[in-house]
Amino acid sequence: MEITTLVKATTAVILPGMTADSGTGQAPFPAKYLLLLVLVVLAPVIFTWLTSTPGKSDADFDQSINAGKTYYEAGEAQKAVEAFTRALKSKPTEIDLLLNLANAHRLANHPAEVIKYAQEALAVDINLAAAHFLIGCAYLRLDQPTEGTKALQQAYDIDNTVGAVGYLLGKAQLAAGNAEEAVALLEEVVAFEEDHLGAAYSLSRALVAVGRTDEAKAALELHQRRIAGKSMPTRPGAWEECLYTEVLIPFKLEQPDTEGIAVTFVDDTARAFAGNAAQFAGPFGVIDFNHDGNNSLFVRTRTNTFRTLLNTNAVFTPVGFEFPAIEGARYSRCLVGDLNNDRFDDVLMLGDQGSHAYRFATNGLARDLSKFSKLASLKAIDGIMADIDFTGKLDLLAIQPGDAGLKVFRNLGSIYFKDISKTSGIPTQITGALKLVMDDWNNDDMLDLFIPRTGEPPMYLQKNRGAAHSPTNTLPTLPSATALATGDLNNDLRVDLVCLANGQLEITFNGLEEKQTLPLAKGSTAVHLLDYDNDGWLDLFATGDGVQGYRNRGSAGFADSTAALGLDAFNGQVSQLAAADIDRDGDSDLLLAHESGLKYLRNDGGNANRQLKIRLYGNRSNASGIGIQIETVTAGLRLKRTVHSLPIEIGVGKNKLLNSLNARWFDLSLFNLDVQVKPDETVTLTELILPTGSCPYLYAWDGEKHRFVTDLLGASPLGLPVAEGVYIDADPDEIVWIGDETNFKPIDGNYRLQLTEELREILYLDEAKLLAVDVPSGAEVHPTTKLRPSGPYPPAGLTALAKRKPLRRARRSDGLDATAALQANDSQWVSPVELRLPQLRGLAKRFSLELDFGPLDTGAPLALAMTGWLHFGGGMANIAASHHTDLPFPFPTLEAQLADGNWQKVDATVGAPVGKTKTIVVDLDGKLPNGAKQLRLSTAFEIHWNRIALFEKTALPSVTEMHPTTTDLHWHGYGAKEDLPSHLPLTPIHDQTSDTPNWRITPSGWVTRYGDVDELIAAKDNQLALIAAGDELTLDFDAAKLPSQPPGTTRHFFLFTSGWDKDADFHVAQGWTVEPLPWHGMNAQRYGRESRPRLDDAWIKKYNTRWIGLRPLNKLDKLTRSK
Question: Distance of CA 366 to CAs 29, 322, 358, 371, Å?
Fold first, then answer.
């Protein structure tokens, strides 16, 4: 207000001087100077007034919050709405404010507005139980119980101890026609909420609906006793009231200090380049090739070459070879990142006459791979590196000169690229493209694409799961921009957008309608975001005619800091700006490509605040972590940064300790707690190789605990690709060995199995039954099921083996003697010689085992029994592997050595263990050539072998089959894993669970309600138990129903299952949804596109009444416990 008055008063002084001689059209000479003087003096004040948001002080904000709280608690809904709306204008994306406003609209009975504001809160944090609850309440008021059930179920999944949630979810289920589910929920509320005045009555109605009239009468009598002498609530929404309907006090995001610390950029070019700066030009790249914190440069020279400048104590010295550039070419971008995932960053140099690729090793030694890379002929004026196809490698997207559109190149590994412009799905015929920027605008963990264009608003291509980047109109209206930049400018954990257009910077805040504009004093061609004063708030820089800087003051807007930073006297054309801590003093210096050569502007003063340096090591994601989002929260500060380039330097203010630091990897989030910020120390965040998708787990009661047995149905994935558009043909029937009488024992008269879904998957279980076989001494019985290269698949069964032939000698292809290791199923294993890169997990460099069993009787019914485990790759690894056309076929093959020493392939399907430890049988009856001396087993899978034995087939003893006596589906959680060497399979611990997974997405849809599922798994009839992530199914088999055991035998147990499993991997067809449901006989290659046949699907409505949201939830508490 004071600023506005000052401006008005100044105008009043100026105008008389201007009008005194208005007839001449000129002001008197002194008036000109007065006008100039006033404008000069007031320019910073006027600029600050124009670029800040007036009337949004903390005091006003606090007053609005307090007023809203008072009105809300007094029941004055409309006034509460108005007060919280005023507060929201100050912080439009503040989660707690959005929930407060949603609650005020709930009080005012505005359900559509409740949904709107609660959904805005969920866009930032999916784990807001209050938001899910409020949406559910709103849908119930709109008489949409199915939608209400979805939302309330997610609130219930986060914390099912809140009575109002269970009560309203029960009522929603009852209204939706799911009376049995309603009974279970309302019984829980009645038991745990004795003071709830409506739960018993609603339970009585639900019991009537399921025909349990006697119990309904008892529930009604209980209701009468509970309300005796009490008044029933009459206020609208009274049943909704709980902790989720209370007013919240927002996170106190500390705003930057108005003045800030003193920072200047000192031109230290002459010292840094030893007087040779004019010899070097842009574009350049910053590269720490030794990962020692010294940021060196890869530059273009005035003699038309490229070379490395080694940084030693902030002095750059040429090292290594010079590489020729193309004569007459104009180079526009230098991109730095690890292109072959060898932990060393590489360089791409893009030019309008051709491009170059350089592979780096230690000490700055580079090798020119331009021709090998297939990029030498690429003509480009801009480009970005990103993992476009989600295979853990950095691909390339480039703009061609001459308005020729875009080019898309897939990185096939080893810095070898393939032009996929016609098949990538990305629109490439885009005219007027100027720049490329990628960031996650809609907060869905996928990078969207922004393309500023000549004379048109920027194009926005949104990346959707299961689809390519596609044009959308979901962005706010943007100007015709010549450049743009993205980043979280107001620290609300959303990406914002800065456009350079019409001589000014226009800031679009994600989720806000109001924009800010910053006038530019000089012509500019690019905009950059960096935190030069380390206060945790991204500042703005515009380059072109010099450098202009604007300090981010949070809610007070941006202040022109060009002069204060010492940049006002810096003139001349600047074509590139990069920020990096060159002198290792804890703040980001500036490197410029100037018309006179390279410039080094040393940051003096920025290290008065602290800077967090991060190095990312991707394993499934690209090794450099390009495109990864980093989040941190500590007292008064929260922020999110997308890694667009290296190095990664993040200001954190005065904070020496961060409460949490999270790298949002491709499909995994791992929080690091209490991270210390130390000067000149780099925090390394390594992407752990944790399982996210594989198979359901099987546990068996051994008399003391639930022992982990193995995993299930790994050969029956839904929509899992082996290459683009080619899917694995599912083999839905499997038999696994559980154990024998020594490690599988009855409990309470039952043999008990636990099937758990502990990964980001959905299990579609059609049948489960126990098989018991009494095996005589000297014989073995094994399943015939295994992972086969393709169908048709033989029926699942058992086979008996006897007359074991001793293994005399085994030798691995590298000469390792493996004889002792392969004799028995024990602690000794034989592993591959060398594994592939982590992005190609599940694969190994081809290795073999030569097996000498002595003279082979080729006329005998021989069979190999091989025990081992296979490391599953998953969709991402499969697609990545399909891009490497030089990789060998991974499935095991078997050869026999002839008398002359030559090897002949054996015509037998060897197959592979389906996941974790299993024994597979290879039938050699009639398959071996006469005179075969020994066998050779070869594979390019990552298979670890425990025992390989040769037997003869024999008659199978009698097999007893049993279906479960009782079943129970319930919540279990996600098991901890045993700390084992890498050659052993990942082993979960049944009784050590967490309720929160590490991944961020899971298949969403209606799944089987908790309780018994006897009917669903009693037969192969396409009636499926849909078991979601975190669920457990208990199977009890009556031990008394087994026949008596013959003497001299050992009783072995097996589990037959029929079903499918679907992972939420990005590449899995329909991996983000529970549907479409599978059926026996379906075409695996058309999953998601094939119409479901006419089946008896009445079970779907009866059982599938539990909703699972797309994002896994952080569960706070639970009432249901596993057996």
Answer: 65, 9, 6, 15
H helix count then E strand count, the chain: 16, 61
Nearest to 388 by CA among 359, 417, 368: 417
Q: Can you state the angle between helices 199-209 and 213-227, rounded to 10 degrees?
A: 170
**Amino acid residing at 746:** P
Q: What is the number of residues in the chain?
A: 1123
Is residue 795 within 8 Å of residue 731, measured between CB atoms? no
- Angle formed at CA 495 by CA 491 and CA 497, multiple of 5 degrees: 110
HSE toward the beta carbon, residue 223, CA cutoff 13 A: 18
pLDDT digit string, tens, across residues 407-464: 999 999 889 999 999 999 999 999 999 999 999 999 888 999 999 999 999 999 999 8
Any idea which residue has 């790298």 for tokens?
663
- Upstream peptide bond of 647 is cis (omega within 30 degrees of 0): yes
Q: 524-551: per-residue pLDDT in tens?
A: 999 999 999 999 999 999 999 999 999 9
| Distances from the Cα of 279 to the Cα of 309, 326, 932, angstroms | 12, 17, 71
CB neighbours of 63 closer than 8 A, spacing ≥ 6? none
> Nearest-CA neighbor of 784 among 861, 863, 858, 851?
863
The arithmetic mean of pLDDT across residues 348-365, rounded, is 93
CB atoms within 10 A of CB 409: 25
Secondary structure (H, E, C), 499-553? EEECCEEEEECCCCCCEEEEECCCCEEEEEEECCCCCCCCEEEEEEEEEEEEEEC
- Residue 303: how many CB atoms within 10 A of its CB? 10
Q: Could you give the 3-state DSSP secondary structure of residue 1014? A: coil
Distance CA 205, CA 1047 (A): 57
- The SS3 assignment for 590 reads strand
Under 8 Å between Cβ of 868 and 943: yes
Asked whether residue 1002 carries a pLDDT value surpassing 80, the answer given is yes
Closest-CA residue to 420 (of 442, 447, 391, 441): 391
Strand partners, 710: 698
Spatial CA neighbour of 718 closest among 1007, 1005, 1079, 1062: 1062
Residue 822 CA, distance from chain mean position: 39
Q: Which residues 6+ apart lie within 8 Å of 692 measured at CB?
A: 667, 668, 759, 760, 874, 998, 999, 1063, 1064, 1065
Instruction: Give, in order, the Cα–Cα distances in Å from 182 to each of 132, 226, 438, 458.
Output: 19, 20, 46, 50
Q: What is the pLDDT of residues 1082-1114, one digit of tens each?
A: 999 999 999 999 999 999 999 999 999 876 656
CA neighbours within 13 Å on the CB side: how many for 406? 28
249 and 96 Cβ atoms separated by less than 8 Å: yes
Token output for 520: 């530019």
3-class SS of residue 244? helix
144 burial (CB, 10 Å; 0-12 / 13-18 / 19+) is middle
Tokens of 366: 């580079």
What is the token pair recorded at 326? 């193309």
Q: Collapsing DSSP states into helix, strand and coil, what is residue 134? A: helix
Task: Compute the distance between CA of residue 1016 and CA of residue 1022 in angstroms, rounded to an integer.
Answer: 8
DSSP β-ladder status, 682-686 and 611-617: parallel
Query: From CA 6, how far away is CA 23, in angstroms rounded?
Result: 28
SS3 sequence, 102-118? HHHHHHCCCHHHHHHHH
Rg of the chain over Cα atoms, rounded to whole angstroms, equals: 34
Which residues does 463 contact at the CB level (< 8 Å), separation at least 6? 444, 446, 447, 448, 449, 469
Nearest partner of 1011 among 203, 177, 181, 204, judged by Cα: 181
What pLDDT is attached to residue 693? 63
